[in-house]
Design a protein that fits this description.
mainly alpha
Length: 248
């Protein structure tokens, strides 16, 4: 099992190196990149937005309940905005996109593999990495920060709605508290995490689909592996990046 894990890591590292090389070397298929940006970014907005707004609302409720025991209700706005921008926005958006986009990439490329369409691309002198992998990696790297920025705004707005109209906070005071304690590094760290998560989601979706075998059952296994491995790597990488940004 340990040797199989090392073999998997080695194959993934080689795949990532080749994919990044083809991302940087022309020709670049801009139309395919635009299509993937639309699929990853625009069509993921509803699920990411719903996740963010209810997360912000629940976070405001739970923070108020906890801080009320110590007469520190004024810190609710600060906790909501910092939690959303630093951690919850990037992680939850990454997990939602991993479930939606990572599975779709693995299923699409896996189906092309088992039906020999990837071999047909090679026969037609079209590099599969250029045509299938590179556009998805570039689009994932570019669109996840956009999605996370939208999730941050919507999540903080959800907390504001609960704080101002359910918990009785003064709206102007709540907004000033959110703005005064928010630092640029809080937002920047979340966007950097989002870019890394987008790369990982796209990489693992393409990798598992590209190496799928065994017909429909193999495609299903590749899809499952893509979502599970991307989710685990998102949580692991989140801790590492948080330690690098905020461990003083």
């Amino acid at each position: 099992m340990f040797l199989d894990f090392l073999q998997y890591c080695g194959r993934l590292a080689i795949f990532a190196g080749v994919a990044v090389y083809h991302c940087l070397r022309p020709p670049i298929y801009f139309r395919l990149i635009g299509t993937q940006m639309l699929e990853i970014g625009y069509f993921s907005l509803p699920v990411v937005g719903l996740t963010a707004i209810f997360t912000g609302m629940v976070l405001a409720l739970q923070s108020h309940t906890g801080f009320a025991r110590f007469s520190a209700e004024g810190a609710v706005a600060t906790v909501v905005v910092i939690s959303m921008t630093r951690e919850l926005g990037p992680v939850l958006a990454g997990l939602m996109v991993a479930g939606r986009i990572g599975a779709a990439m693995a299923a699409e490329i896996g189906t092309m593999r088992v039906t020999e369409q990837i071999d047909a691309l090679t026969t037609l002198s079209t590099n599969p990495f250029k045509y299938l992998v590179a556009p998805r990696l570039i689009a994932g790297l570019a669109m996840l920060p956009f999605l996370v920025l939208v999730a941050d705004i919507i999540g903080v707005f959800g907390g504001f709605l609960v704080g101002a109209y359910q918990l009785g906070y003064n709206p102007a005071t709540y907004i000033h508290s959110s703005w005064d304690y928010l630092k640029p590094m809080d937002v920047v760290s979340g966007l950097v995490k989002a870019a890394v998560f987008g790369f990982l989601i796209s990489l693992l979706g393409c990798f598992n689909g590209y190496h799928s075998r065994g017909g429909a059952q193999g495609v299903g296994q590749a899809t499952t592996n893509a979502v599970v491995s991307a989710s685990i790597l998102i949580l692991t990488t989140n801790y590492i990046l948080t330690a690098l940004f905020f461990n003083k």
